[in-house]
Predict the structure.
Amino acid sequence: MVLCLLLGGCSILPPVAEEQQPAPRPTRDSIVTFALDGRIAIHQGERNYASGISWQHAPARDEMQLTTPLGQGIAELVRDGSGARLTLADRRKISAADLEGLAEQAFGINLPLSALPRWLVADIPAGAQQITRDAAGRPQQLRVDGWRIDYLHYESTQANALPNLIELHREVAGASEQIDVRLKIDEWTLPE
């Protein structure tokens, strides 16, 4: 009778949930609009920048929020048909014709911000070299336009999973010109 009670008691426990894979993602080259939330760290010579990042990307517009670890706004970047604008926490504004010019003007760093959306979804750009892939056929490392891109982790084991840990390294001779960028993506959002 005790055995029946014990076995009957086990039947009322909820079933153990199996770890589920996220829904399959679209092909990398078809992703033109996305949003992501995560953290970014940039190192160049003696300069180091680290912040939270929330980015909404579309072909005609980018909106990027940079925050402290506690969520306080550091800067807001907007790119649209009229150029690129950066608004800092103290309300200073910096404008440029494009994202690269804005990064150079604001931080003194030449970042490939126009190419970055394709790189982030691991869509291999034309002209990429020394491409290595993982067992699922996804990019692990490639070189393009003087940058080495390492895809260190993907959100799942699916072939079209998006990367959630990426490192970029600009390969130049002078140590002060080298740039390392590490991006940890906590959440991807794609349009339905």
Remarks:
- The domain at 25-189 is CATH 2.50.20.10 (outer membrane lipoprotein receptor (LolB), chain A).
- The chain has one domain: 25-189.
- The helical segments are 2-10, 99-107, 116-120.
- The first helix runs from residue 2 to 10.
